[in-house]
Write a structure and sequence with these properties.
about 160 residues, mainly alpha, 2 domains, coiled coil, sequence-specific DNA binding, Homeobox_CS, rod-shaped, about 0% strand
């Protein structure tokens, strides 16, 4: 079988790239901070100064720019995510305050022992507003699917008692 092996061409030989030393990396970082684009003169000068091929310098610059871009995108993403979380928290707090207001109005209305149709209709309106605030409906008197949620106040009273 050895007689059929072909000699390795230069393309297929594995070359081990030398890693850059900390001093070389520091010099590249300094030059990168000065200018993140590499012109041919600078590339040749750095290659001679560091004792590495110019192509390795060019690749290092390219990789460094990619790392910086990724880092920048991650930072932007974290900032946007934090803004979203803050907005959601503020919105939840506002909704909770609205529900507490409706609950207070509902409790003050239901604690009064008024008799009459006017107090009954205002109590029903408060129940509707309270339920609408819980489910996020803008118009508490109109059900979106036609179902009458407010047929009896028993479920609402159980809900209020449970969460109070």
């Amino acid at each position: 079988m050895d007689q059929f092996q072909f000699p390795q061409t230069r393309k297929h030989q594995t070359r081990h790239k030398k890693r850059l030393t900390q001093g070389q990396v520091r010099l590249l970082e300094t030059n990168f901070n000065f200018s993140n684009k590499l012109d041919p003169e600078s590339k040749s000068r750095l290659a001679l100064e560091l004792g590495v091929p110019p192509r390795q310098i060019a690749i290092w610059y390219q990789n460094k720019r990619a790392r910086e871009k990724n880092h920048s995108l991650e930072a932007d993403h974290k900032a946007l995510q934090q803004q979203l979380e803050n907005a959601v928290a503020e919105n939840a707090k506002a909704e909770l305050n609205k529900i507490h207001g409706v609950l207070k109005a509902f409790n003050s209305s239901s604690s009064c022992e008024e008799v009459g149709s006017s107090s009954l209709s205002s109590e029903q309106n408060l129940e509707k507003e309270f339920y609408a605030a819980l489910i996020g409906v803008r118009d508490p008197f109109v059900a979106t699917d036609g179902y009458d949620f407010f047929g009896s106040s028993y479920d609402l009273q159980l809900f209020v008692e449970f969460y109070m």
